[in-house]
Amino acid sequence: MDKDDMVDISTRKEAWEWAKALCYYAGENDDFLNGFWKELIGSEGIYKEFVYYLTNRTFLCEYKIQGYSVIDIMVWQMDHFKARLDDDRSGMKQNGDRMLLMAFDTMLKMEKDPVKYVSLMQSETGTDYPEKY
Question: How would you label 8-45 residue by residue, b for 16+ Cβ within 10 Å and e otherwise?
């Protein structure tokens, strides 16, 4: 085993532990964690973004799906769920771990069905403005 393989194994273990902690603090169960992890390690681009955030506590935003990065997804989610954030039914207002986890989880879903999520991001802004209705 060469040095790069050892780093990959160490990084994967660290990423797993962090995913587990994020799920715990986000209030998600083991079924969610296991499904999230399976999808995460199956996506080279999103896994790289996840590990980069873990290591640097900032976003890489190198991997995009139809032009959208994980930050774009997080902003959309915050805007889309603005009303629920105001009364905190979503649990995200006071839970940064949940917001982060849901952004990565949505990006994994978006990777599988980009048309659906791009359409949602472009149509469901959550913002009230005169031309909306």
Answer: eeeeeeebeeebbebbeebebeeeebeebbebbeebee
The model carries a pTM of 0.82
Domain that holds residue 43: 3-132
Neighbouring residues of 103: CB distance < 8 A, sequence distance ≥ 6: 70, 71, 73, 74, 77
What is the number of structural domains in the chain? Answer: 1
- List the pLDDT tens digit at each of the 133 positions of the chain: 444 454 587 899 999 999 999 999 999 999 999 999 999 999 999 999 999 999 999 999 999 999 999 999 998 888 766 555 555 555 555 688 998 999 999 999 999 999 999 998 888 765 554 444 4
